[in-house]
Design a protein that fits this description.
Blueprint (H helix, E strand, L loop, with lengths): L2 H11 L4 H5 L1 H40 L1
Length: about 60
């Protein structure tokens, strides 16, 4: 086996760059979770506003 063949074989099995891909998975999961929490919070704000408006309307109908 020549040194060029050994170097090519060593390069083929080298996994030093693998961590660059693996660390993107937790980062992507973090982005997904934070995005889902932001959407849920925005929906809660809109839902609360609609509920308060409906409650005020019903209270006004009761007293008027």
């Amino acid at each position: 086996m020549t040194s060029a063949t050994a170097a090519a074989r060593r390069l083929h099995r080298d996994e030093r760059g693998q961590m660059g891909g693996i660390e993107a998975l937790p980062f992507g999961l973090l982005i997904f979770v934070v995005g889902a929490l932001l959407v849920a919070n925005a929906w809660a704000v809109i839902d609360a506003k609609l509920a308060v408006t409906a409650a005020a309307r019903e209270a006004a109908r009761t007293w008027v």
